[in-house]
Amino acid sequence: MSSSNEAAAQQSTSISYEQLTQSWPAFEAQILALLETLGLADKALVCDHVALRVNSIASADALRDAFSCVGKIISDNIINGRTILIIELDTPLTLGQFSIACVELPYPSDKVYPQEGWEHIELVIDSKATECDTLSRDLLALCPKLSALLPSEQAAEPVPSSSLGLNSQGIASLAGIKIKMSSPKGDKERLANPTIAFKRDDVCIKVHPHGIKAVIASEQT
């Protein structure tokens, strides 16, 4: 395929604002199912924002314009070498019990995502953690079921799955979840915000101690 045809193909498959709107119910269903599997559905957590992924600057620019019509950009920062926008919506998105006021729109990096569109939500838990080990302990205190994924370093021996209310089916469902721990930080940020991500298939739930507006406020100090 010629370069011009490749460019045309990329453009034709780029995600649009309308496609994002249409795909929201399916994304919501996947996220709610993952929340239930993790045991976080009933923890009264705050969802501070939802994030999407795009593979082209053209898509990012188009979505920036579209979201600017239904909200305002409250942060334009460089994180891990790429621009990431945070848009505060005029009307929050609804996802299950959550009201989500902000959208994270990252510009593309060298990585090509197999699927463009909604990718993850981020939850805030009550924690003063400045690194992932402490955050992991706080998360386990909130949701002991996650010890099947995040074994406590302080435990003398593994916690029996029976004591966590897990049957063989529950253990199998957790086995399909990938875990990643990181401490992403923007060039201007002064607030440590360790993050634990739980990914299954094409969606992800991230947990951290500080909401996006607190992180943005730290850029001003």
Automatic annotation (TrEMBL):
GO terms for cellular component: cytosol. This is VOC family protein.
